[in-house]
Structures are given as C-alpha cells and as structure tokens.
Design a protein that fits this description.
Elements lengths: L8 H5 L11 E10 L2 E11 L4 E5 L6 H8 L7 E6 L2 E2 L5 H7 L3 E4 L11 H12 L4 H14 L15 H13 L5 E5 L7 H18 L2 E5 L12 E6 L2 E6 L1 H5 L4 H8 L10
Parallel strand pairs: 3-8, 3-9, 6-7, 7-8
Antiparallel strand pairs: 1-2, 1-4, 4-5, 9-10
C-alpha cells in the first residue's frame, strides 16, 4: 500500500487502537502570539504513549510551533503543556534541561553540522550531555549508524550524502540518547517518493523495535495516514480534528475533507 515495506504491515493490516490511560503529552488551552499574530488558539491536544502521531495541516497552521511547545522551546501565553502530568511551564531551567533528555528531535532537512562528519554528528549529543568515555561513545554511535543502515559511513561529511542519507543520520542522532519521545519536523520534505517511503519505513521499523512515542509533522497527505496510529489536524492555530487515521479520513469537517482530498475547491481558498 503506497510503497509500504513488509516490516510496517501492522499499520495496514491491523492498526493498534489508541491506548487506554493518560497520554504522555497534553496541551491544554494553549494560546501563543508571535509577532502580533495568534499562532495557537486555545489548543487542546493529546499525544498517546508509544504510538506514532502525525500532525497535519496547511503551511502556517501552527504545527512547528506546537512541537516547540512540546519540548519546552516555547512557553504558552496561556494554558498548560503537560508531560506525564507535569507542567513544563512550572519547571526551573535546570529541571527543563533534564526533562529535554527524554526527547529526541529530527529537524527539517536533517540540520546536520556541516563541519562535522557523520560519526561526530551522531556523537554530538553524547559529548554535550553525558560523561561517557570515548570507547562507549564510539560503540553507541556505531550501533545507531548500523540501525539506520549507515555502518561504515561515519567518516563522510553531510555534503557527501544524499537527502535520504542525511535524514537517516539525523534519525540516528535523535535516537542515540535513547529518548522516550522523538519529534519529527517534516522528516520527508524535499525527498522523491521512493526515498520518502524508505525514510518513513525506517521510522516505522524504529518504532517497532523501540516503541518510542513519536510525533511527526507531515505534508505527505494522504499517504501519512498509512504510517501512523493517531492523526491531529491543525488549521489556523486550532486543532479541528484528532483520532485514528480512518476516523480522520472519514471526517465530515469540510476543511479536513478538502485537506485529505487535496481539492482546490472548498472552504480554504489559496488562489
């Protein structure tokens, strides 16, 4: 189905139900104004634990700002950002720094350091945030490069890598600290369909092996519905729909329908 690899069959054959119990992350009544514009408007959002959540919406809808609130890079003007029930806004700087160790982040286009080779890019969080010795760092980096299929590529520099390889290095760097939650800001932007599917398949295989909680901003609509367990639709800074992929695809909300179908006709006028 749309290029899915065999290891991702759980998504197409029998998608897991949203888990019972408290979500790992919650945004409650979150408002945010940036440069005089209300970017988030009374957002309520739950991120289920040990699932892949996709956040979709038009460009400028507020998706990346949501991610920055989840990891505490931005604080809401109003509302709460709760991680296992603890409001990030109430944490001291030191407590917030420690809390961020629970997160990995894959930025748009990979965001590798051009001056560092692949090995040092992946090793960077370990050098900055741990007291591991050189041999321990080397072993750990090699393990994660092997997981993303780049064993032996440690000496290459970012400008020697294809777009897909850059995203794989970025995923290894996001995983190397063994986080509970990985945030992906448009991990497949600018990739051709085959490489895009290979990156999504790698994300799925990583989920199956580690059961990370994953939150992924994506414009790969409608394909992204096949690669996640939970979908959140954001429009004009509001969450207008959330649920399992099939439920969101079947939504009667006209904005959601237009987004899913990619129809230029509808309530959203871009031309």
């Amino acid at each position: 189905m749309n290029g899915r690899c065999p290891s991702c069959e759980e998504f197409s054959v029998d998608p897991p139900r949203d888990p019972e119990g408290a979500p790992i992350l919650r945004l409650v009544g979150v408002d945010k104004v940036l440069d005089g514009k209300k970017v988030l408007d009374n957002v309520d959002l739950d991120v289920p634990r040990n699932r892949i959540t996709a956040i979709i919406g038009l460009s400028g809808a507020g998706k990346s700002v949501l991610l920055k609130h989840m990891i505490g890079l931005l604080r809401p003007d109003r509302g709460q950002v709760l991680l296992d029930g603890v409001d990030l806004c109430n944490l001291s700087r030191k407590e917030l720094f420690e809390t961020r160790r629970r997160f990995g982040m894959l930025f748009q286009s990979g965001a590798l350091f051009d001056s560092l080779d692949v090995f040092e890019n992946v090793a960077f969080p370990l050098r900055e945030k741990t007291t591991l010795g050189e041999e321990q760092i080397r072993e750990r980096v090699q393990v994660f490069l092997r997981k993303v299929g780049l064993e032996g590529a440690g000496g290459k520099f970012p400008d020697e890598l294809s777009g897909g390889m850059v995203r794989r290095v970025a995923l290894a760097r996001a995983m190397v600290m063994d986080p509970e939650i990985i945030l992906f800001d448009e991990p497949t932007t600018g990739l051709d369909p085959i490489i895009r599917n290979s990156v999504l398949c790698l994300i799925c295989r990583t989920f199956r092996e580690h059961k990370f909680t994953m939150v992924m901003i994506s414009h790969d609509i409608p394909d992204i519905f096949h690669w996640c367990h939970h979908v959140v639709v954001v429009h004009d800074g509001k969450v207008i729909e959330a649920g399992m992929p099939e439920a969101v695809k079947s939504s009667v909300n006209p904005i959601v329908r237009q987004l899913v179908e990619g129809d230029i006709r509808g309530p959203v006028h871009l031309m």
